[in-house]
Amino acid sequence: MKIFKKMLLVASLGMTLSAFQVHSVDAATDYTVKPGDTMWKISQRYGVPLISLQKINNEWDNNLYIGQRLTIPTITSAERTLLAQLVHAEAAGEPFSGKVAVATVVFNRVDSSLFPNDVKSVIYQIEQGHYAFSPVQDGRIHNTPTSEDYRAIDEAIAFRGQGNGSLYFYNPQKSTSEWIFSRPVTVRIGDHVFAK
């Protein structure tokens, strides 16, 4: 009976620890170039924008060689949690597609030369004395995200680089910025307008 209890305890501990790994994502994945590979084919296979793959590997031409090691960009566990917090703060009550679109804006900024190169720096970016995202300023960034917020991030990662190129979003009922109203609209989802 004691052995059974110990086995049950070990199994329970293992299941508990594995539950905490659900949202863990490595900072990057290594890939070994195979015959016929191109940067474009690899970017499509892993669902990352070509420019992101080129940037992280400092590989701007297509002269790959078999056996060459490339880094496939992903996000860290801490970045994933932070992004889920932002999605929750910005898009709670919005449709799932709106949550995906908010996460996509962050990834589009990471992939753009106009913004910082990582999720955390994009989220905490200060422009003209103000945080780019209001939940950072008002503290809502620290609210607990839901499993749906994490699923939205996973979907945004899976389709990274395939959207409308939105770099901004706003609620037209709350926003007062003439500048944001001047941006070309890419899509409207729920209460948010997404723009370039």
UniProtKB/TrEMBL annotation:
SUPFAM superfamilies: LysM domain. InterPro entries: Cell_wall_hydrolase_SleB (IPR011105), LysM (IPR018392), LysM_dom_sf (IPR036779), SleB_dom1 (IPR042047). The keyword Ubl conjugation does not apply. GO terms for molecular function: hydrolase activity. Keywords: Signal. Residues 29-72 form the LysM domain. Residues 1-27 form the signal peptide. Gene3D superfamilies: 6.20.240.60, Cell wall hydrolase SleB, domain 1 (1.10.10.2520), LysM domain (3.10.350.10). This is Peptidoglycan-binding protein. It comes from Peribacillus asahii.
